[in-house]
Amino acid sequence: MSINASGWRPEAPISGGKASPTTTGNKALMLEEALIFEIGDTTTTGVDLVEPVAATSRLGDLARTASIGLPGLSEPETVRHYTRLSRQNYGIDLGFFPLGSCTMKHNPRLNEKMARLPGFADIHPLAPVQTVQGALEVIQQLAHWLVTLTGMDSVAMSPKAGAHGELCGVLAIRAALEARGEGHRKIILVPESAHGTNPATAAFAGYSVEDIPATADGRVDTEKLIARLGPDVAGVMITNPNTCGLFERDMRVISDAVHAAGGLVYCDGANFNAIVGRVRPGDLGIDAMHINLHKTFSTPHGGGGPGSGPVVFSKALSPFAPLPFVEKTDDGFHLVEEETAGEHHAGAFGRMVAFHGQMGMFTRALTYILSHGADGLRQVSEDAVLNANYILRSLDTTLDAPFGGSGPCMHEALFSDENLADGFSTIDVAKGLIDEGFHPMTMYFPLVVHGAMLIEPTETESKAALDQFIVALRSVAERAKAGDVSLKSAPHFAPRSRLDETLAARKPILVWKDPGLAQAAE
Amino acid sequence: MSRYFTEDHEWVDVDGDIGTVGISEYAQSQLGDIVFVDVPEEGKELTKGDEAAVVESVKAASDVYSPVSGTVIEGNPALADTPGLVNEEPESDGWFFKLTLSDPDELSGLMDEIAYAAFVEKL
What we know:
Chain A has helices at about 75-90, 110-115, 120, 135-150, 160-180, 195-205, 220-230, 250-260, 295, 340, 360-395, 425-435, 465-480, 500-505, 515-520, and strands spanning about 155, 185-190, 210, 235-240, 265-270, 290, 310-315, 325-330, 330-335, 415, 440-445, 455. In chain A, strand 4, helix 8 (about 250-260) and strand 5 form a beta-alpha-beta unit. Chain A has 15 helices and twelve strands.
């Protein structure tokens, strides 16, 4: 059969605009891959099931008679299909991955070894607590270190990643305001330099969102923010370090003003990786902050199930933190749940998830913390900031660095497309980088910068690796500044060139349809 | 009929007490190819500055604010299937919604075409 018979892929030129010289469409041993539905046939199966003898169906007329159309593959065909797809993927284990705001951090193999220990990997969330004391100790120890590193009072371990953590924090703020009879405060202020999820979280929790502009140097306009505070404001959500890669220096002033006006302070701690060991958010007057374990503590992005975004709380918000949590007493570790919380934690706003959080991520993050130690964690932050500043200062004469004059950046360097030739934009630079063998940076975010290019090298890249990237980006940027038209059709060496992103977004094909059936229906 | 613009690049055409709202040519050129538009439903009460519609391009999702207060009469039904109209005809067929103005005095705070052109020139 021919490859990709359904024709579902966008019509895209073969690289270099030349037709493939091979019959199969493959290029050497990097194979074109068909959809799984197009491999094998429905009579093939990878398993040999015995026909059940004793069972009689009680479905009656409800029993399905037609084929359900599952793909039929043998085991080796299945293994090859997914292995081939994995070769087309790009990941941090393959090369430099400078996605700003995403923190594509190296995942140390020691983390993986620990997470796979059967005592952690093979336990069930409903196992009796006496049988999983070691796992509870891991949760409790990680909680201890997160509270210590942030200088906060308590932590909710169960939220499943950044935006879920934001929701957890804002729900705690709402519970605290309602507890003091101030549920009428309905506005949350969000600076332009915040992550895009912040306003979405506030709106989801029932608040109206008001934007606070950024100053010309890329930080929150403190005067405007303070001027907007009042009896209708529930709180603020500030990303610090912010999404322009800058530290919000006025954080303490802002927190004090928000508290004086009766509000509470949420900090988006997604960028905590830039300041671990240097700054304790608790000292900045923050009431709640989530920590992305995958960004700051090196757990994989989406590896082995959902992520993990624990939320640390100030003393003021701790009574409202969600259940469950692990507590240590003289006779071991316990889970504080609805049945056991009682007066001891009566203010909890509820719970975020069914169980206790993502055990695999907890084990990895604790491994990272303990294997690095205090000095190691501090060095991680410092190296991440050093690497980003090396990129910023190596390229700020080639590309426009809108906040280059605002002092050192934190863990990410931000450029704009302002000085590219007319008709050239960030997308052309990104596609050119693919030809050079580099995954592109984050594009067109943050929105406060025209044609933003946000580059986050992370701490584990060597100077040699950074230099290679800088040489490649400088060369592509110079071509874009000179108006080199060949860049408009890059990438030239990727299996596909420019895909039609507009068509893909306007008319996405999300479900495979049997071409035979589709034809019959017409 | 007269046309007014906001600093957020919405325009409103006013005919009697009926306003037609869309986004400017400049706004569509900045957004890039538009892939999805969410327009308000009939009967929705809007206050000037309220988030009235959402426009999504390949680059970003943006809110469209109501340039005036009023009650929505209809959203542009054509945008559901052909959001690209906003790119092609932003200031005519690509309109977002029509509303009955509740406070025509608000128009005096908006820019006319000449003032808006000068405003865009400075960006």
